[in-house]
Amino acid sequence: MQRYEQTNLPKQPNSIYVCWLDIMGAKAILSRTLVVGATFIARLHKISLNAQSTCGNKVRLYPMIDGLYITCERKEDLESFLKMVFNNLKQIFIETPDIQYKFIVKASIAFGPVIQGFEIRDEEIVKGQYKESLLFGIAMVQAFEGEHEAPPFGVFIDESARAFAPTTTSPYPVKWWTWFTQAQNNETDKLLEQLKAYFDWCKKRSYAIDYPIGRIEHHLEQATQYFGLLKN
């Protein structure tokens, strides 16, 4: 068996921010209706690509069907990207009149060493766009698992990003990072109102949509606390 030469990988991977962003309950949505689920997923990726372009490509995107990984060296650039994405998706959620065509996103941020495809030097193993789509690192796992701790339309900060940061900045001081400001209280109030209506709709169809009432109540309580953080 030919031995793989690790010299083709960076010897000292850079520690950067990794964010996992996805659609809540995408698996259940896709199992009910392919067209609606695919529409949600396509919209998420389109908005993410537009935000990346606006940020001057300071973030890298790694699409993964119902979500995507985002990598970024600077906290400020990642936050700018997430603010654009969440504000756009918030507006879509509020303005969509039919509840069954609304969808919710969540995100989680971790920090740690990762290897990105463009850093791999061996062109015989992975080439072109395929290589560019690769991402490795524990921070990926941390971001993915942390998403379960994020409230609806919210962002969870993994312990790695609360303990470590680039030398030019400081770690996140909170478990939940808010992408909105106090000046947006009226907008987030509308979002929370719509979320309450959405979860009420889900409760009445919990068996049909495979969404246990206990989980619905849990997500509603999370959202209520999250969007009240800047009011206390």
Question: Main traits of this protein?
Answer:
232 residues; alpha+beta; Alpha-Beta Plaits; six-stranded mixed sheet; 8 helices; 8 strands; globular
In terms of topology, how is this protein built?
Blueprint: E1 15-23, H1 26-32, H2 34-54, E2 60-63, E3 67-72, H3 75-95, E4 105-113, E5 115-116, H4 128-132, E6 135-136, H5 138-146, E7 155-157, H6 159-163, E8 176-177, H7 185-203, H8 213-226
Parallel strand pairs: 4-7
Antiparallel strand pairs: 1-3, 1-4, 2-3, 5-6, 7-8
Helix pairs in contact: 1-2, 2-3, 3-7, 7-8
Task: Characterize the structure shown.
The protein has 232 residues and is α+β, with helices and mostly antiparallel strands. The chain has a single domain (12-180), classed as Nucleotide cyclase, GGDEF domain (Alpha-Beta Plaits), CATH 3.30.70.1230. The chain is 44% helix and 16% strand. It contains 8 helices and 8 strands; from the N terminus they run E-H-H-E-E-H-E-E-H-E-H-E-H-E-H-H. It has helices at 26-32, 34-54, 75-95, 128-132, 138-146, 159-163, 185-203, 213-226, and strands at residues 15-23, 60-63, 67-72, 105-113, 115-116, 135-136, 155-157, 176-177. Strands 2-3-1-4-7-8 form a 6-stranded mixed β-sheet, with helices on both faces. The chain has a two-stranded antiparallel sheet with strand order 5-6. Strand 2 and strand 3 (67-72) form a beta hairpin. Helix 7 (185-203) packs antiparallel against helix 8 (213-226). The chain is globular. The model has no long low-confidence stretch (mean pLDDT 91).
